[in-house]
Write a structure and sequence with these properties.
The structure is a homodimer of 412-residue chains.
Chain A (H helix, E strand, L loop, with lengths): L19 E5 L6 E6 L2 E4 H6 L19 H5 L2 H15 L13 H7 E3 L4 E3 L7 E4 L3 H11 L15 E3 L5 E3 L4 E2 L2 E6 L2 E6 L3 E2 L2 E7 L18 E8 L2 E2 H7 L13 E3 L4 E2 L7 E2 L19 E2 L2 E8 L2 E9 L7 H8 L11 E3 L14 H4 L7 E5 L6 E4 L7 E6 L3 E8 L3
Parallel strand pairs in A: 6-22, 8-16, 9-26
Antiparallel strand pairs in A: 1-2, 1-5, 2-3, 3-4, 6-7, 10-11, 12-15, 13-14, 13-22, 14-16, 14-17, 18-19, 20-21, 20-25, 21-23, 23-24, 25-26
Chain lengths: 412, 412
């Protein structure tokens, strides 16, 4: 379907996606926008001009400075607004006077993306990080416990842990190399992390929550999801390895997590559906009716330093053992309440080949090897990394999601 | 120091403590109160009647329905308000006309505690649970990995993990027995938890936070703490044991955490200071100048069922390897931001003897033995538990903190 807005210049911000975000400009306070082509559609202004009047819901939810209230309005409302936006923006719209042919309104509500600042799209209550990438899990086992095999629970349930919500930042925020405690020559020591890494992940924002003590049925679970973002789970491997027995990662992870600023609604991803890797029969509470419950979305990873920009990895959201519906069914099985704005992430999305990995830990075998990359551009020069250097810019991109980017700042 | 308010009837709500909480009654919306004797002092009403006019700060922080804004005001303000309250309430007050001798005002601002409902005192962003009880850690090791010794990092850093904030509830909220996945006869299965347990903990609420990328100096860290509560970290042991390799506890913990409703300010606990157990020299970032950095506060644990109320354990907040100042210095060492309302807990506070344990896992050696208790009262009948039964009421009490109580509701 084509739009009268113009070319998306390869960003994927076409009519297919229409992701939501929170933006501000020099003249506009933080507000909800929808990405289309090179523009952000100002949803606050559109709402105030009563463009959504035909849809019955609390319109003030679209005038807020986070997406929480709108996300909580439920899928039916999101579908209705999306349909109206599709009609409003499509080349052969029947609503021309509402926007396409209304020059004054276009000036007011179509904001050039290049001049806008993007913010965290939701106020995040709890953040959960899973570990459902089977190739990632196998590689980690091979590195840290060679010959040990995957943990006995690994195929039976989605292994996960609670992450830190306070250090989740919007794409573009610099990430300071953390200091911490790790072991050098068998002695605990304190200093700047020596093994700084990233992790390519995919994450869902919760729209509607569940009450404490209730659980979410696996076949209903998608209705609780508002949409998806790319996520970089920055990791300090030396700190993490030393601290995480027996209770899991802590300071090795809680210093920063970056998300892409645009939340792609669940409705936009139907075309990418795919069957998950199924290795065992699931217990009934995880046995979903839907066959194609995961997504096939490539995520391109690049590294940029003063010498150039390098093509690093190509991961994929399909490299998981469980769907988001299964993650939610498991997470709430004991009655744990989800709240609007909670974030649920997959864990590292490594694939089977060396160029499909999702972190340097795997590519360098915990720093033993160096991973070589080729520059994007005509010169095709090379660089390599075992772990990240200060100044490195790590960027994840996926069509329609925009960019999840962060630069490593030196320790203070 | 005595108060004109009257007897505290053994609750410990004397002038020494003056804890803050959020209460409501049939006639009053949720608001800040201070516990004194059998009463709650209505801080919203007192503020509106300009009783705190002599202290310069944003007085609207005391008119809110959570303690977050007031907690963020900083220690100097809290000290000032506390001094004024001490003067206002002491037997030989020089401020008699302000309250003691003002019958009208007394009627308005002194609310009978027995008729009030207590709520969560803070809006909680992130919740961190540590594992710094050395006797608890040793007992767990003996049960699950006999002969293995403590983890190698255990003495060198405070081991901890992120917990679930959405399922933290105020004392009195029923706790539903969670369903979940665990192993029976070597097969993963799904059903109501068979090994339901509690954990006696002590927790601090953050007052002022730190910026992302900055860290909190160990000798400054107490200034970031608003006050303390008792905490019950309900635990589903069968679920926890199966799920927690390699990333730590998840559904075994995230179904419920209960806190006592009254936050005892840091200032009130000076009299309980004690030296922590020091087993090794700390790295400099954890090496605090203050010697007596932990507290000696007994916590009494009782179990009540239809047959009576039983004296179960007597734990103590001193059974820890690290102070809260050290916990905060470690937690923020890598730049992790604390926010007002974040909750930091010690982990289980077991002591050295059988009657000083902090959970049934230890007392029953993971369900192998039965732990016998004697009833409180003249009949001194006995009962025993390996793990909790439906209907059991678990209560923690400490002088001046009130009660942290929850009843086990059956699975649905």
């Amino acid at each position: 379907m084509a739009t009268w807005i113009g070319d998306d210049h390869g960003s994927g911000f076409t009519l297919d996606f229409l992701p939501y975000g929170i933006f501000s400009t020099d003249n506009l306070d933080a507000r909800i926008g929808v990405a289309i082509g090179e523009y952000i559609l100002d949803m606050k202004a559109l709402t105030q001009e009563r463009v959504f009047a035909s849809i019955e819901f609390d319109h003030s939810t679209l005038e807020a400075s986070t997406l929480n209230c709108y996300a909580a309005a439920g899928r039916k409302i999101h579908q209705g607004v999306r349909e109206l936006l599709l009609e409003l923006l499509s080349e052969d719209t029947t609503l021309g006077p509402e926007l396409r042919d209304n020059e004054d309104r276009k000036k007011r509500v179509l904001i050039k993306m290049v001049g806008a600042t993007m913010h965290l799209p939701m106020s995040i209550g709890d953040y959960t990080d899973f570990f459902i990438g089977p190739y990632h899990a196998q590689n980690c086992t091979d590195i840290f416990r060679p010959g040990a095999g995957l943990p006995p629970n690994y195929l039976s349930l989605p292994v996960g842990y609670a992450g830190r919500a306070s250090s989740i930042v919007a794409s573009g925020t610099p990430v300071r190399r953390p200091k911490g405690q790790f072991v050098v020559n068998k002695m605990p020591t304190f200093g700047p992390c020596q093994n700084l890494d990233f992790e390519v992940e995919f994450a869902a924002f919760i729209g509607q929550g569940n009450d404490m003590g209730s659980s979410i049925d696996v076949d209903e679970a998608e209705n609780y999801i508002f949409g998806f973002v790319l996520m970089n789970d920055w990791s300090a491997r030396d700190i993490q390895v030393w601290e995480s027995t027996p209770l899991g990662p802590f300071n090795g992870k809680n210093f920063a997590t970056t998300i892409s600023p645009w939340i792609v609604p669940l409705e936009a991803l139907e075309q990418f559906r795919e069957k998950p890797v199924k290795l065992v029969k699931r217990l009934p509470y995880l046995d979903e009716k839907k066959e194609c419950s995961v997504y096939n979305i490539p995520i391109h990873v690049s590294l940029e330093d003063e010498s150039g920009k390098y093509d690093m990895f190509k991961c994929n959201t399909k490299n998981v053992l469980f769907s988001f519906a299964q993650l939610l069914a498991h997470h709430t099985a004991g009655g744990c309440p989800m709240r609007t704005g909670d974030l649920i992430a997959t864990g590292t999305l490594s694939g089977t080949s060396r160029h499909e990995l999702g972190c340097l830990l795997e590519a360098s075998r915990n720093g033993i090897e160096s991973y070589e990359m080729e520059a994007i551009g005509p010169e095709r020069q090379k660089t390599s990394r075992s772990f990240l250097k200060d100044g490195d810019i790590i960027e994840f991109r996926a069509l329609g999601f925009g960019s999840c980017v962060g630069q490593v700042a030196p320790s203070v």
